[in-house]
């Protein structure tokens, strides 16, 4: 099985999960059987300077599951529509979450209707830590 994790630095299976899926600098694809990894830059390969684009980055890969610490409702809905199951990370360590995933102990992410409930803005997925639009990392990977 291929499992996808958002990361900021590629340390293989020792990587730490990045806090927000949509703006992660990279995705680490891990084969759960062989533990082989592949790093994918979070941008559309055809438009690398356009900013974060998890859909463009991952569309060419077959993924059996995504494990993330945070993902907005609209991105979660889109990933589900693309056929990707998304699971809630239980720690920041990729390897711990991989083990929980293989043991079927990770909860599947559900739509929270956060914006409708007033818990975040409608553009939550499109803001960086400073509150401005877009991502806050370099796309010259």
UniProtKB/TrEMBL annotation:
<dbReference type="InterPro" id="IPR003731">
    <property type="entry name" value="Di-Nase_FeMo-co_biosynth"/>
</dbReference>
<feature type="region of interest" description="Disordered">
    <location>
        <begin position="113"/>
        <end position="141"/>
    </location>
</feature>
<feature type="domain" description="Dinitrogenase iron-molybdenum cofactor biosynthesis">
    <location>
        <begin position="15"/>
        <end position="102"/>
    </location>
</feature>
<protein>
    <submittedName>
        <fullName>Nitrogenase molybdenum-iron cofactor biosynthesis protein NifB/NifX-related protein</fullName>
    </submittedName>
</protein>
<dbReference type="Pfam" id="PF02579">
    <property type="entry name" value="Nitro_FeMo-Co"/>
</dbReference>
<dbReference type="InterPro" id="IPR036105">
    <property type="entry name" value="DiNase_FeMo-co_biosyn_sf"/>
</dbReference>
């Amino acid at each position: 099985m291929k499992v996808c994790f958002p990361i900021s630095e590629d340390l293989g299976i020792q990587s730490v999960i990045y806090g927000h899926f949509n703006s992660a600098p990279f995705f680490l694809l891990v084969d759960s059987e062989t533990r082989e990894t592949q790093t994918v830059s979070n941008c559309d390969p055809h438009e690398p300077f356009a900013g974060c684009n998890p859909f463009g980055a991952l569309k060419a890969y077959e993924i059996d599951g995504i494990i993330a610490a945070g993902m907005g409702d609209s991105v979660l809905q889109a990933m589900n529509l693309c056929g990707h199951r998304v699971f809630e990370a239980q720690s920041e360590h990729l390897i711990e979450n991989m083990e929980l995933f293989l043991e079927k102990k990770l909860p599947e992410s559900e739509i929270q209707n956060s914006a409708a409930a007033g818990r975040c803005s409608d553009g939550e997925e499109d803001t960086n830590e400073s509150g401005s639009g877009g991502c806050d990392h370099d796309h010259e990977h």
